[in-house]
Amino acid sequence: MSFASLEDRLIRVFGAWGMIDDGVDSDTGNADSQAATELSDQPMSGSEKTKLLKEITEMADAFVGMQAISASHSVQYLNFIMAALFELISHDDQDIRVAADEAINKITKLSDVYLTQHVICEFFIEMKRNRSKRALSVAMKKFAACVHKVNPKKRRMYAINLLPVLRGLLLNSLLAKLESGKNYIRRAAADIVVSTVIHSRLPRELAYRLLQQLAGKWFVPAGFFFN
């Protein structure tokens, strides 16, 4: 099958999911950067579920076929595909979640060396998005599984950028526990937060960010009563 025919299959799925404008050029596959990737979590009929499962498989197969022909031309679609699949990872229906996970695994496994670096980057981006617990957990596991494949020239970049992401995730989790109804959980969370700030390389900056998060979480905005 030619690259163009595989691309057409991919774009048909994008269109069915509302991810491209009606006026998109199917010859170039110029996906709209503002594409809507939010797929409905509303209860589906049996036929709708079957259709969605088929489209997930079709999208993954089309992309894998495209990258086998030309990885450099296929990479432009990767961000849209991964964003949609990670959204489906949080779908209410378990079969949809499993299908999305399998599609991500297939793309990861069959990507060439060039595209693998972009796939790893998509896992990192999804970790930064932190859209849902399921998607975050899957992204972290897949990033960890692929980290040994990171280009040596990119390792320092990931190391520098990964720490703030993980620290932010940790602090967000701990801040949530500060509202626990159990005293010992609140005390333990508070102790860990304080220790993290004190032993940070940039304690003042981290403390400032932490206070910003707390202020935004627990205090009413100044202009609230004047709107």
TrEMBL record:
It comes from the Eukaryota. GO terms for cellular component: cytoplasm. Residues 28-47 are annotated as: Disordered. Transmembrane segments: none annotated. Gene3D superfamilies: Leucine-rich Repeat Variant (1.25.10.10). This is Condensin complex subunit 1 C-terminal domain-containing protein. It comes from Dibothriocephalus latus (Fish tapeworm).
